[in-house]
Specification:
The chain has helices at about 5-20, 40-45, 145-150, 155-160, 175-180, 195-215, and strands at about 25-30, 50-55, 60-65, 70-75, 80-85, 95-100, 105-110, 115-120, 255, 260-265. It is an alpha+beta fold.
């Protein structure tokens, strides 16, 4: 499942490639991917141009002409692929967007992905996105902000995954973030000392920036069909149950943390 680095790669490439392009036609194979009936969706979208593309957490936002936004969520995973001529595009998709210059892109959702056309005036009431917090790679994600949300008795993993507190991190990157910070995922947030908070703040940013620089996870594709370079070889404890900790050689464990599982070193991350 794509998380912040992969979504940022996609949105940056889309902004570079699609800015100022005008929608010519849309093919919809699976109407349930949309937030309205397909004919209404097509009628409203055709003729609009893309002003810019950016991300908010795990969502991709297309700012359109005529005071509209197109919102894209990859759900549990998707292939979002660009083509520069109509002859070259793949025929495997739920939605395909064609532009007046004969380029376009396809959306092949693996599970739960969807596309929504929203008036700008309705964005503030859009339940899935209105409360998404700033992302760790946003300039506004400062140490002061991070300290302001490090409160309460929730486990630190729950804080990091809470999209209303921190936008964009999911269950792929959180394991190694907590391992590098030497914090058990169930540690209550309000028991962290200043040094731990400072270290965790820097670790979150460093881990995500490293993946972004490597164009994201190796099993995710970018807008041009290229896989990222952040492979399993770069995972420290994540998904490495039964293997040795890279720091102390203790056996990595998989434990339950609420509704999710976590991979930890029991020696380096003592509760």
């Amino acid at each position: 499942m794509a998380e912040l680095p992969e979504i940022m790669v996609l949105s940056q490439q889309m902004d570079k490639e699609l800015k100022s392009k005008e929608f010519k036609s849309i093919d919809v194979v699976q109407e349930k991917c949309l937030n309205m009936e397909s004919e209404d969706f097509k009628r409203e979208l055709i003729g609009k141009t893309i002003e810019n593309v950016y991300n908010k957490g795990k969502w991709i936002f297309f700012k359109l002409s005529d005071d509209y936004h197109l919102l894209l969520n990859l759900g549990m995973g998707a292939d979002i692929l660009y083509y520069d001529s109509y002859e070259d595009f793949t025929d495997e998709y739920q939605c395909c967007f064609h532009f007046t210059d004969n380029s376009g892109f396809t959306c092949k959702f693996w599970w739960f992905g969807h596309v929504e056309l929203i008036k700008n005036s309705e964005l503030g009431d859009h339940k899935p996105t209105k409360d998404i917090a700033i992302s760790p790679l946003d300039p506004q994600f400062t140490l002061g902000y991070f300290k302001s949300i490090c409160k309460g008795r929730a486990g630190v993993k729950n804080l990091i995954l809470n999209q209303k507190k921190i936008g964009g991190i999911g269950n792929v990157y959180v394991h190694d973030i907590l391992f590098r910070a030497k914090i058990d995922p169930k540690t209550p947030v309000n028991t962290l000392n200043d040094a731990q908070i400072d270290n965790l703040f820097e670790t979150i940013k460093e881990n995500l920036k490293k993946s972004l620089d490597m164009k994201g996870l190796a099993y995710e594709m970018d807008f041009y069909g290229n896989n990222g370079k952040f492979s399993r070889d770069y995972f420290l404890v994540a998904y490495n149950e039964g293997e040795k900790c890279p720091d102390c050689s203790a056996v990595i464990q998989k434990i339950k943390t609420g509704s999710t599982s976590s991979y930890i070193c029991p020696e380096c991350q003592k509760l």
